Amino acid sequence: MAGRERLGEPFGERARRRCLINSQIMRKHLPYGRQVIEDDDIEAVVNVLRGDWLTTGPNVDDFEAALAERVNAKFAVSCSSGTAALHLAAMALRLGPNDAVVVPTLTFAATANAALYVGADVIFADVDPNSGLMTSDTLQEALEQSRGRNVRAVFPVHLNGQCADPEEISKIAGTAGLHVIEDACHALGSSYDVSDGTVAFAGECRHSDAAVFSFHPVKTIAVGEGGAVTTNDAALDARMRQLRNHGLTRNPADFANHELGFACDGEANPWYYEVADLGFNFRLNDISCAMGLSQLKKVDRFIERRRDLVQQYRDGLADLAPLLRPIDQKPGNAAAWHIFAVLIDFDRLGCERAKFIKKLRDRSIGSQVHYIPLHLQPLYQDRFGDQSRLAGAETYYEKVLSLPLFPSLSDDDVSYVIEVLHDIVPSA
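RE: above sequence
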């Protein structure tokens, strides 16, 4: 009875919900995210397999050009994963030992690991407990607590698809002399309002040195596994291209060994290259880029569907607040919504999150937690010691749960998830 009173539902409505749920028990499992692969994507891949190039071929250049155009950046450098993209950008900006990088603690490990890969230390910033986003205030707090350290960069994360106030973060970074690398792995197609009345895309790099994307299967578009870095800096673009290919250069103007590099007539030897820097094999192959080109052509359709599904969730779950409520929508943000996250007051429900997840799983609904704050992870505690409690991130983590969201999710699927949540929440 208490549950019915809390939701304000008559008994008949409650019974109708339960009948609907019981009729759906045997339905297919709904994961929290999945790729959408269509016939044209398959055809694009098959065409490459039947062609002359499998590794670095014409589709790589075409995909990079299309991606740069989509996010309104001058350059895009494709690479083997979003993690590689972060690493590549950190190397290209020459971050290294004795440097420190500010990273929001509420993110996937790759964001902080990219700093560690180049030998830099990590300083964790807190986040807004209602959105999970690093803010200009939490960045400023992290910098104030790090006085005396050589902080050289900040990696803001556009969590769930919402942009983390790039303009204000850029102002603080500019004052402090910091590079900015946007972790936009969740945010392909997201945009935000700028104070001059214009709109900027995530990845446009209007307020950063570079931005990184992931094309993992659950992201906005999928290429199997892949990533990219966008920038408007020609020198940074050139350096990233060299570093992703073992640090090699084939440009005669860069050759240091003229005896080996040039023939007697002064022409560069056609086979010659030099290892100019320590790089990696971070290249993305032609197969993946062909798939990326195909997916990019329909990215707007994918994004609009995600936005529509999120609105259906928000409308259908509104009466469960404050026990369950969607994360805050940031004003001035047009999110592409990679993840649909809700905040659940498990303490008031008297239900552990693990039990809640099992209840959903028993009804064929997948869910996930994004993310465990990195300052609580053993790797970072061992390296940097216990940092002061980051209350915003810990509060967010204690409540957050990601629900199914992907473009092929049907309206009926969303209605089913909503019905199940209405059944579980008052009885948890």
